[in-house]
Amino acid sequence: MGTRTTKANPWVARIVRIIAAFFRNVPDVVWALLLLFTFGQNILTGFFALFFYTFGLLTRTFIETIDEVSSSCVEALRATGATSLQIVTQGIVPSTMSIIISWILYMIETNIRASTLIGMLTATGIGFLFDTYYKRMEYGSASLTVIVIVVTVIAIELTSNKIRKVII
Questions:
Q1: DSSP letter at 80?
Q2: How far is Cα 118 from Cα 47, in angstroms, rounded to an integer?
Q3: What pLDDT score was predicted for residue 72?
Q4: What is the pTM (predicted TM-score) of this model?
Q5: DSSP state at residue 1
Q6: C-alpha–C-alpha distance, residues 105 and 2, integer Å
Q7: Cβ–Cβ < 8 Å for 112, 159
Q8: CB-CB neighbours of 140 under 10 Å
Q9: pLDDT at residue 70, rounded to an integer
Q10: How far apart (Å, rounded) are the C-alpha atoms in residues 52 and 12?
Q11: Parts of the chain with a pLDDT under 70
């Protein structure tokens, strides 16, 4: 809806771009603090903090990707008389799918890293576990939590790198 390539309504495209820019420009930690002060410490606070930032960043990235990658495909399909649905399914999706999947994998990696800090703020998840151990001076358990986080991040990065190699 926010791309110039598909020639959607210019007002809708502008509104989508403004919303995406707003959500993207507020960092996930700020979202966590805003939601924490508004709704208190619960699991949804951390989830929505990561969701809002990820939504804004991915929406903006997808808009830019679609605008850059598929303009020649869209022009060719439009010249043959293709409908809007055919343009999206036959031109935009195939030419942008590998880049979109790559960005989704990147955001999964980023969110797993950020969830530790946000968990400390919102008292949920593995970040809360680390914070609890650290404050109780149980450094063995705290270091084990850090090791689990590092191993998880490395495993997810290796997995996403393999997926990227397959799709690209």
A1: T
A2: 9
A3: 75
A4: 0.81
A5: -
A6: 22
A7: no
A8: 8
A9: 64
A10: 20
A11: 7, 70
